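Example with several molecule types.
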Amino acid sequence: MSQQFDNVSVVKQGNVYFDGKCVSHTVILADGTRKSVGVILPSKLVFNTGAPEIMELIAGKCVVKLAGASESQTYTGGQSFNVPGNSSFDIETLETLHYVCHFG
Amino acid sequence: MSQQFDNVSVVKQGNVYFDGKCVSHTVILADGTRKSVGVILPSKLVFNTGAPEIMELIAGKCVVKLAGASESQTYTGGQSFNVPGNSSFDIETLETLHYVCHFG
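Resulting structure tokens for the full complex:
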């Protein structure tokens, strides 16, 4: 996996969620696809999804419980998890997460 | 001023400073120049510089006092301030800052 996106646009203004527990910047690929690169600080948060998402973890450690799931699962850097659209997930970040979020 | 960088690379792993009060991502221009896009949450911090920096504020509000300066100055989105190399500055962020940092 490449450690960087090449030939992309980056929006200078970031996105701040949950009082700054999550900060991301929007990346736009050459074909117009939007992704975000972000950081989640140690916390317990609930994220809601519009479009389906793939959360690709670059570094860090978290415990995730998808809406309707009976069990939670631990993920670390190098792993990914999928979240359905119009849903939500509980995420407990144990070690600061660096992620790429893929939409749609 | 453009709201985004175009035709750049972006490092997927972010940079986290001061327990997450400052989160940035590195952007690499086509000519190899490195910049960073970042967010500083409301806080009082002291930043040290290696290379000289130009802090370009995209949004937010802060009060800055450069090392050796007798007075502090207030800056808001749309303004910039210069910091010498091998120096430091006190920055009180009053409203979450979105910035681009230019080095060298």
